[in-house]
Structures are given as C-alpha cells and as structure tokens.
Amino acid sequence: MRAEYGGDPDLDESWLADGWEPLLRNWIEQATRAGIAEPNAMTLATVEMSDAGPRPASRTVLCKGLSSTGVTFYTNYDSAKGEQLAAVPYASITFAWPALERQVTLRGPVRQVEPEITAVYWRSRPRTSQIGAWASQQSRPIASRAELDRALDDTTARFADVEQLPVPANWGGYQLRPETVEFWQGRRSRLHNRIRVALDAGNPNVSAMKVERLQP
C-alpha cells in the first residue's frame, strides 16, 4: 500500500509568480482534464466546541467559487459545519488529487458571502437540488430513509406551482480567505515538494505574499 511518486517537473517557487489562485485553478483544470471525478472536491475541517473542549471535525464539500480572495462553498447555516463556523470562524481546506500526486491546503478565516452572491449560485442549481435544500434539515437526526423521502415528496408538492424557488433563509455561501496556502507534490524517496504561501487573509496583492519551501 505504498506508491512511488515522481515523473512530472518539480514544483518550483516560480510557479507562484502570479499568486496562489492561478496555480490552484490550473491544478483543478488539469484534474478535470485527467478525468478525475469531482475535481473540485475538498476536505473542509472546522472546530467543534464541546464540553470536553475543542475537537476537529471534517467532511468533503465542493468548491463552488475560486478567486484571488478565497474559496467559496455552500451549505445549510444550521448544519453542523455551519454551527461550528459560527462558533469558530476559521477553517482548513484540502484539495487532494492522488492520481496526479498533488494536494493543496488552505487555512484562514471564514465568513458568509453576500446574499446577492448566494442568490446567483442558487439560480444555477438544478431544481431538484433546490428542493433537496428545502427538504433537508441538514445534520439533524431522522427516523428513517422513508421519512426523508416523505419530506422530499412534501416539499416537491409544496413548490409544484412555484417557478423560481426562493433561497432558504438558512442556506448560503461561505468563503475561506486564506492566510496560508500550501502546495504539495509527491516525489521519489518521500522527499516531496512543499511550497507554502503566507499572506494577509483575502489580500490578492502578489507583492504581499511570502513564498517558502518546506522540508517534507
């Protein structure tokens, strides 16, 4: 259960001359062309506060927006991750493409995006996904799959005569504005390439970046 990495040109600091976002976008596009399923999938790690103290919580979500200021995803604000981000508005995101021997990790503060941005993305979603967002009380217990299916049927009937479904009040986008972005590339003998970019959260100014190579 061990693979040998290497083959592609070595990840170099010069690849970040235009900033972190163009390189991340390029890697996502390469993953897409390589036929990788869900190339925009990313692991989102948040902090869950409990009586025993802070605990890590992670799950896979989809990147639905990428710009020089950060990475955007959408969810139910009342979900577990929504509650965790309300309590500790800081997170870590990791994109991983093992087939390409690459991953990227971003860490930084998280904020809700403006309602206008959420509305634009909402209108791009399939109607079935919109109905699902209305039907599901995300992260809350439910007795059975049959009960969940009934909730979906009831919601479908509720909106049968509504042409454009409104955005639920408790649903919308978050943007992580990175303080650090680390690019990882697998290399032979486990001497992997790691290059970390440090920047002010959400600051798109390339001149404000600090780029440094890390030991594997």
Describe this structure as you would to a colleague.
The chain is of the alpha+beta class and 216 residues long. It has one domain (13-124, 167-214): Pnp Oxidase, Chain A. Helix content is 25%, strand content 33%. It is built from five helices and ten strands. The chain has helices spanning 20-33, 80-87, 115-124, 127-135, 145-158, and strands spanning 41-50, 53-62, 65-67, 70-76, 90-97, 102-112, 171-176, 180-185, 193-198, 210-214. Strands 1, 2, 3, 4, 5, 6, 7, 8, 9 and 10 form a ten-stranded antiparallel beta sheet that branches. Helix 4 packs across helix 5. The longest helix is centred in the first third of the chain and has 14 residues, at 20-33. The protein is elongated, with a radius of gyration of 20 Å.
Low-confidence stretches: none
Under CATH at level 1, the class stands as Mainly Beta
Q: Superfamily at the CATH H level?
A: Electron Transport, Fmn-binding Protein, Chain A
- Tell me the structural class: alpha+beta
Global morphology? elongated
In total, how many domains does the architecture comprise? 1
Give the averaged pLDDT, no decimals: 95
Indicate the radius of gyration in whole angstroms.
20 Å
Summarize the structure.
With 216 residues, the chain is α+β, with helices and mostly antiparallel strands.
